[in-house]
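step=encode ok
step=design start
structure_in=
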């Protein structure tokens, strides 16, 4: 979420929330998912994808940087175990499609990697770590529209923390986690952070004006 929705597990809401979104949870943040829990819910999501896609023959996974990419690769590995076939997996950078782009200094682009067979006519499953207001996913849909025309797009997230600002919902959810706007949700993955955990904490500063 890259301070938008996935890198730190939070997404800014309203004109004053972006700065607060970067606040780290306090040291008393408690884990709500540990490594074995994350592995278990990813296995469940993989089975749900196979069931809904009737075999996952045309499924393409696209992770949203940063941690959505790692989750996408893990899901692809689990799908391969279930289906005995290689599942195309890539990444989708949304930086230039963000609706807060003009409000912040320029930031480095992440990588967009589309599997060789493309996405036209495929079932694309976007993968992210935390679903919050939905603005990251809106940006991802805009980015996807410039790349190709999938037959359908679905969304898989590790955590849905509520507080949607747009009519977007996940098709596959690892854990529904009701939160307040004063709380933070931080996903840590071994590939980036050295361990697998989801932490629920309270912001170090007041969240300021929200809407």
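sequence_out=
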């Amino acid at each position: 979420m890259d301070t938008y929705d996935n890198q730190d597990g939070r997404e800014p809401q309203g004109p004053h929330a972006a700065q607060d979104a970067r606040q780290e949870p306090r040291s008393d943040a408690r884990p709500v998912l540990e490594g074995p829990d994350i592995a278990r819910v990813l296995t469940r999501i993989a089975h749900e994808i196979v069931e809904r896609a009737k075999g996952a023959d045309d499924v393409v996974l696209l992770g949203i940087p940063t941690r959505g990419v790692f989750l996408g690769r893990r899901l692809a590995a689990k799908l391969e175990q279930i289906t005995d076939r290689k599942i195309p997996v890539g990444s989708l950078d949304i930086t230039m499609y963000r609706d807060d782009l003009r409000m912040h200094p320029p930031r480095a682009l992440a990588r967009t990697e589309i599997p060789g067979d493309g996405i036209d006519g495929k079932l694309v499953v976007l993968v992210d770590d935390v679903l919050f207001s939905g603005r990251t996913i809106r940006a991802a849909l805009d980015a996807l529209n410039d790349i190709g025309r999938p037959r359908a797009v679905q969304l898989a997230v590790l955590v849905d923390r509520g507080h949607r600002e747009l009519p977007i919902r996940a098709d596959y959810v690892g854990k529904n986690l009701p939160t307040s706007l004063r709380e933070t949700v931080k996903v840590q993955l071994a590939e980036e952070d050295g361990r697998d955990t989801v932490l629920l904490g309270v912001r170090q500063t007041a969240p300021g004006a929200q809407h």
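step=design ok
step=annotate ok -> The beta strands are 30-34, 59-63, 89-91, 123-131, 152-160, 172-176, 183-188, 197-202.
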